[in-house]
Design goal:
2 domains
Length: about 160
């Protein structure tokens, strides 16, 4: 699930790339435009500390923090029941799109488990048939040796 949930570093990288893109666009402006943009950025971001806080409390980072918390709560959702519980938590936290994907995975896993159980039952039936057939053959060697003794000596046994 880690790939689906992402991580804080990728989110921060995306936020930084956005800022870099804005800075590049500012660099394309004339001196008047740069002054106007600098005043805007200063008003929006303030100090570097405030800028760091803005990143930390951005909606993207808040979503990632929530996903990290759910990952800690559901570290290894490897059964349909665990996947369903994870999907419920995703729905409860407003992440319906991810909840639907996890619920679909739970349904697919449930279907795969049922299919494997049916295959296991069929294989057990086949194995039972093979076992009963070979058990009939296990006595054949003792019968053939007794027949060989009988045919050679004329007495059975």
């Amino acid at each position: 699930m880690a790939g689906m949930f992402g991580n804080k570093f990728d989110v921060q990288s995306t936020l930084d790339a956005t800022l870099f893109s804005e800075a590049y666009k500012i660099g394309q402006l004339d001196s008047y435009g740069v002054g106007q943009m600098a005043a805007y950025q200063d008003g929006m971001m303030g100090s570097p500390f405030e800028a760091a806080l803005a990143d930390k409390f951005s909606p993207e980072m808040q979503k990632q923090n929530l996903l990290d918390e759910l990952q800690r709560k559901h570290p290894n959702p490897d059964t349909p029941e665990k996947l369903t519980a994870l999907a419920s938590d995703l729905f409860a936290n407003g992440l319906g799109d991810m909840g639907i994907k996890v619920q679909e995975a739970a349904t697919q896993l449930l279907a795969a488990n049922a299919s494997m159980k049916r295959m296991g039952a069929n294989n057990a039936i086949i194995a039972g048939k093979i076992g009963s057939m070979t058990s009939l053959l296990t006595g054949a060697s003792s019968i053939s040796s007794k027949w060989a003794n009988y045919s050679g000596t004329g007495t059975y046994g």
